[in-house]
TrEMBL record:
Role according to the record: Catalyzes the reduction of 1-pyrroline-5-carboxylate (PCA) to L-proline.
UniProt record similarity statement: Belongs to the pyrroline-5-carboxylate reductase family.
Known EC number: 1.5.1.2
Domain named Pyrroline-5-carboxylate reductase dimerisation: residues: 168-269
Binding site for NADP(+): 17-22, 77-80
Reactions mediated catalytically: L-proline + NADP(+) = (S)-1-pyrroline-5-carboxylate + NADPH + 2 H(+); L-proline + NAD(+) = (S)-1-pyrroline-5-carboxylate + NADH + 2 H(+)
Predominant subcellular localization, coarse grouping: cytoplasm
Keyword presence, Kinase: yes
Top EC class of this enzyme: oxidoreductase
Name this protein carries in UniProt: Pyrroline-5-carboxylate reductase
């Protein structure tokens, strides 16, 4: 993961328009990578809710125009139903020297470019809230962005975790697997904790064991590149307790419920 400090790629001021759950996670991730706080603008209407960022010398404001005028890279992290009106308000201040990055789900590159003039370069990105700690997986897609601007966007999201370039047609799938995925995994961990308490651990110890075990399982896949079942085979002693528990989970619909949930999430995005 590149540190932002002392690199040629970190010269541009970044405005995050919409400092809510995701916008703030991105700002925190940039700060963690030692990005100069004075080169970050974060906006929202209830600006007092950004006081923790302000205390770290980030510019916080409800004035989107000011943030746009002061910045080269504009990251839009608004709810989908707000983007059109905000872009309308900002269109005359956005120039071809800006790079637009939208992390808004369910709002296409085409819809974005319809709100702006044709020469404006846009990258769509789908990070997750682990950006706050530099552990996001971000999928990016673009149509008219130059190689240099794609590199700039990739540099930012590499600093917030890892980045992969995808075709925009997969952006809803990226939203579900990567962004909603954080919530699915956390619910899995919560269930592990609940089970752990029932078999004897206090909540704090159960949380530590469940969280580190999930981290270890992920790292086994990320570092070894194995199929999950290969690692599972190493744990399931014949006639042992793991396979007994796993099979009972499957009888109760464990994998099936996850797959159905993922499909329901994408259907929810794509229903209109
Ligand atoms: N949360 C997540 O994990 C992920 C979210 N996304 C996408 O990111 C986007 C934001 O989601 P999320 O952060 O959860 O939503 P939030 O509601 O937490 O954040 C949106 C922010 O936009 C601000 N806002 C509203 N109007 C304006 C305005 N006119 N100017 C500036 N800021 C404004 C709101 O601030 P105020 O209330 O002060 O007006 C709010 O803080 C969505 O499109 C979502 O789909 C994508 C991936 C992951
Ligand atoms: O739940 C949502 O709609 C947004 C998109 C991805 C994560 N949160």
């Amino acid at each position: 993961m590149p540190l932002f400090i002392n690199t040629k790629m970190n010269q541009d001021t970044i405005a995050i328009i919409g400092g809510g759950n995701l916008g703030k996670s991105i700002a925190l991730g940039l700060l963690k990578q030692q990005y100069n706080p004075e080169q970050i603008y974060v906006t929202r209407t209830k600006v007092a809710l950004l006081d923790d960022l302000k205390a770290q010398r980030v510019h916080t404001t409800s004035d989107n125009v000011l943030a746009v005028q002061q910045s080269k890279i504009l990251i839009f992290a608004l709810k989908p139903y707000r983007i059109e009106s905000v872009l309308k308000e900002l269109a005359s201040h956005i120039t071809k020297d800006h790079l637009i990055i939208s992390v808004i789900s369910d709002f296409s590159l085409e819809q974005l470019s319809n709100c702006l003039t044709s020469e404006i370069q846009i990258v769509r990105a789908m990070p997750n809230t682990a950006a706050a700690i530099g552990e996001s997986l971000t999928c990016i897609a673009s149509k008219n962005a130059s190689a240099e601007n794609i590199k700039k966007a990739t540099f930012i999201f590499d600093a917030l975790g890892e980045t992969i370039e995808i075709d925009e047609s997969l952006m809803d799938a990226a939203t579900v697997l990567g962004a909603c995925g954080i919530a699915y995994v956390l619910r899995f961990i919560r269930a592990m904790i609940q089970g752990g308490i029932e078999i004897g651990f206090d909540a704090k110890t159960a949380t530590k064991i469940a969280s580190q075990t999930v981290k270890g399982a992920s790292e086994l896949l990320l570092q070894n590149g194995n199929h999950p079942e290969e690692e599972i085979d190493k744990v399931t002693t014949p006639k042992g307790c793991t396979i007994a528990g796993l099979n009972e989970m499957e009888h109760q619909g464990f994998s099936s419920s996850l797959i159905k949930g993922i499909k329901t999430s994408i259907e929810t995005i794509q229903k209109d």
